[in-house]
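step 3/5: co-fold with S-adenosylmethionine
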Amino acid sequence: MDPARVAALRDDLAAAAFHVETLTALWGAEADAALRRGNRVQASRALGGSSSPAAVLARLFVLGHEVRDAELDRALPSVGVSGARELGLVNLEGARVQPRADLRPYSFVDAEGAGEWWIASDPGELVTGGALPVDHVLGVGGASATLAGLQFSDLVDRALDLGTGCGIQALHARRFARTVVATDISERALRYAQLNALLNGIDGIEFRHGDLFEPVEGERFDRIVSNPPFVITPRTEGVPAYEYRDGGREGDALVAAVVAGVARHLAPGGTAQLLGNWEYRADEDGLARAGAWAREAGLEHWIVERERLDPALYAETWIRDGGTRPGTPEFERMCGLWLDDFARRGVLGVGFGYLVLRRPVGEPVLQRAERQSAPLDESTGSGAHLQAALAAIDIVAPLDDDALLAMRMQVAGDVTEERSHWPGDADPSVIVLRQGGGLRRELRVDSALAAIIGACDGELSLGVIIQAVADLLDADPLALRAAVVPEVRELVADGMLAPRV
Ligand SMILES: C[S@@+](CC[C@H](N)C(=O)[O-])C[C@H]1O[C@@H](n2cnc3c(N)ncnc32)[C@H](O)[C@@H]1O
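step 4/5: write tokens
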């Protein structure tokens, strides 16, 4: 790949103002939302025959329509149609230019502030108009954005992005790591990832080809991130094995293998953030299953399940994702194979979520598995939340109860309290604490715990507050203390109470 040509492309895209904001201004928020649902009609109509450089680039690279060679030459004056062809981004047929790649602006906000990149990947279903080829290289989807938002933001020396695809996690990881190794089994994916790093002027990422951890054998990393090919797929003739989502193992064994590999490659104290699926079997809870992978690998873990799908819904989701429409004979054939595969292992459901893993330095203190009750707001920065909660857990976990009672606690700024009363009653029948950010937890508490949490303003020690509330409610202080201390530990881990040090 010619770096000078990629630099020319970067200059052209910048000069065309090919940015998220420009595109939304061109076609409007409704068309944006329709595009996310896979419908390009509104956006195409809004662009009409506009020949502005941003409109031409959007028509070609985002909406997947043909443009004329002269239009593209004007939109990319330095790189031109010939340069775009050399980079593998377009095909030329006579004067008609067709997209060979999807190329679009991508914006984000992290601990370093706001940023924007251009990301190239294979054209999606919208352009192919049918089932995807098995070597499809994924662009930035919902799962990619979830993992990007989960990444921790303390500066480390070495990070690994396993299964880098178009390179999106590696680019994010590089913002908080001095060097990054990005691996993939797909040579095409690695070419896109390299192009994207170059296009966005990001150095310090080494790209390596190979299966899972094989390209980093014997190496250790301070951080590992991975959106692995975790989709459970029947290992049956006639079911497409998409490289971008299918790691070629039976059931959820790929995720188990990634967890075991993480344990071999994390430096002591290092953390990993992964996405994954886990099976619920007739005789085994899915979250417990995922927790066991981590425990057996000697890793501390915090596993958050975002959703659980029944076998039919899981099969439908992933068959559709490959571009096969419901109601077709092919859809029904594949759905049957998926259900047979699940039935063979007694699978009753599949959990999806994320795993934060850590290689303990001393005694392991983190073993959490939870189901997320509210939908995650990606903008709340789940990574920052988990990272802060992890730091707080590290402070309180080694403390015995007396030491914890001597600490001062502060209720987090995003926690609100909601009280419901039976009509006419002075006392509330239900008190709920709500977390505005992070995992947006809801917690039902009694009036004593509500009073204690409400008094945690960082001034008085927890023990003093509990004593005062016991006096107020005429309760036994020892019993109240015994009941409240474990709840406070949970609230700290939930990020709803912060220890003042
Ligand atoms: C779900 S995609 C994630 C892409 C990207 N990291 C993201 O977050 O959008 C999984 C990636 O893993 C790669 N992959 C599949 N099997 C692999 C294997 N055995 N070893 C390494 N990478 C693999 C695929 O080629 C694909 O790029």
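step 5/5: annotate
Residues 3-104 form one domain.
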